[in-house]
Design a protein that fits this description.
By secondary structure, the chain is α/β, with parallel strands linked by helices. It has two domains: 145 residues, 2-Layer Sandwich (Nucleotidyltransferase, domain 5); 184 residues, ATPase, nucleotide binding domain (Nucleotidyltransferase, domain 5), CATH 3.30.420.40. 37% of the residues lie in helices and 21% in strands. The strands form two sheets. Strands 5-4-3-2-1-6-8-7 form an eight-stranded mixed beta sheet, with helices on both faces. The chain has a six-stranded mixed beta sheet with strand order 11-10-9-12-14-13, with helices on both faces. Strand 13 and strand 14 form a beta hairpin. Helix 1 packs across helix 3. The structure holds adenosine-5'-diphosphate. Adenosine-5'-diphosphate binds next to helix 10 and helix 12.
């Protein structure tokens, strides 16, 4: 029996799942939050759903992993560290260096750290997680699974920006896309649910969470996606602006007396999107609660729906058709009204949602009506199982 861990390390958090492979059954899961802050939170949920929660001062990722491994033994989820045969790590940016997951060597780790210039918030934290496990379990295979690698099948026509070509040659500036593991998982599941070969399907995958992106998947390969060089581009998101005219930047900096470009980017990353338009919240549930009386909340919701609809139209055009539209992530899986509003008005594609089938949350389900030419699917994403599968494939 193989036990494989899937790790998602942030700068102050570490989420994990322990799988029994190849069965893909979850033996335990948990998280460490507030790493480096007083009273870090620590939780482990075992296979029976029993959760142990603790608070402790956890100074860094090494300590977090130490505590986690100790707790696995204490709760008898494992008897010996040797039972863990591989650890897979989610890594945000793989640039042009990684078009697939890889076993982490010293060179790979150095490259992940170098690619921090593409994902300054994420890659350094991901690398810290990798190092922490390597320090404590030096003999166990580590695999890096990149959010970008699924999109490395995009061709130049899609991934190049229309700027001097030398910038691409010199600095690799191009569209990379993110959420690749999620788009890959849901497109594979869509083919299985429809009982059709993935190679024959044109799928538009809508990963709608706090961070959100749409991906055109033709024959199982990503051909275009809405995020860009960084995850700031594309859809209106919880706090991110999505696509804007970049000339706004110098204009606003002058008008608002903002002197540093980094402050301006911070506004686009943290104070924009649903939060910026509504002036209320980045959370869809808050906006729905106020929608009836607060025009700004309603406006933010309409902008969100509209941007998704426009990307669906663009990707149906790019692929010359669409067989399935998939909804996933927090909003995609739970927001009944938003799904309905996005699909309503796609009658030119003969895509119709069935309101009764759509009246559900967090389950795998076909939600299109009988007479829809396009299958509309709700598929809860599972990035962790994809990480565990890649560990098994590569170890
Ligand atoms: P991320 O992983 O990118 O942080 P999630 O995938 O968890 O984000 O999605 C968070 C979003 O999902 C929030 O906008 C939240 O309001 C929305 N969401 C979660 N549950 C519901 C629900 N029941 N109805 C509507 N929106 C929901």
């Amino acid at each position: 029996m193989f036990k494989t861990m899937a790790i998602n390390a942030g700068s102050s958090s570490l989420k994990w799942k322990l799988y029994k492979m190849p069965e893909e059954s979850v033996l335990a899961s948990g998280m460490v939050d507030r790493i480096g802050l007083p009273e870090s939170l620590f939780s482990v949920t075992d296979g029976d759903g029993e959760t142990v929660k603790k608070t402790a001062d956890i100074a860094d990722h090494d300590q977090a992993v130490q505590l986690l491994l100790k707790q696995l033994i204490e709760q008898q989820i494992i008897k010996d560290f040797k039972e863990i045969t591989g650890v897979g790590h989610r890594v945000a940016a793989g640039g042009e260096s990684f078009s697939d997951s890889v076993v982490v060597t010293d060179e790979v780790l150095a490259e992940i750290e170098k690619l921090a210039e593409l994902a300054p918030l994420h890659n350094p934290a991901n690398a810290m997680g990798i190092r922490a496990f390597k320090n404590l379990l030096p003999d166990i295979v580590s695999v890096a699974v990149f959010d970008t690698s699924f999109h490395q099948t995009m061709n130049k026509v899609q991934y190049l920006y229309s700027i001097p070509y030398a910038f691409y040659e010199k600095h690799h500036v191009r569209k990379y896309g993110y959420h690749g593991t999620s788009h890959k998982y849901v497109s594979q599941r869509a083919a299985e649910m429809l009982d059709r070969p993935l190679e024959e399907l044109k799928i538009i995958s809508c990963h709608l969470g706090n961070g959100a992106s749409v991906c055109a998947v033709d024959g199982g390969k990503s051909v275009d996606t809405s995020m860009g060089f960084t995850p700031l581009a594309g859809l209106t998101m919880g706090t991110r602006a999505g696509d804007i005219d970049v000339s706004l930047l110098p204009f606003l900096m002058e008008k608002e007396g903002i002197t540093a470009i980094s402050d301006m980017i911070e506004i686009l990353n943290r104070d924009s999107g649903l939060k910026g338009v509504s002036g209320l919240s980045s959370d869809m549930r808050d906006l729905h609660a106020k929608e009836a009386d607060d025009p700004q909340a309603a406006l933010a919701l309409r902008i969100f729906e509209d941007r998704v609809k426009k990307y669906i139209g663009a990707y149906a055009a790019l692929m010359n058709g669409v067989d399935a539209i998939v909804f996933t992530a927090g909003i995609g899986e739970n927001d009944i009204q938003t799904r309905e509003h996005i699909i309503n008005g796609l009658s030119y594609l003969n895509a119709f949602i069935d309101p009764e089938r759509n009246d559900c949350r967090g389950v795998e389900k076909l939600i299109s009506s009988e007479h829809s030419d396009v299958s509309i699917l709700l598929i809860p994403t599972d990035e962790e199982v994809m990480i565990a599968r890649d560990v098994e494939r590569l170890k």
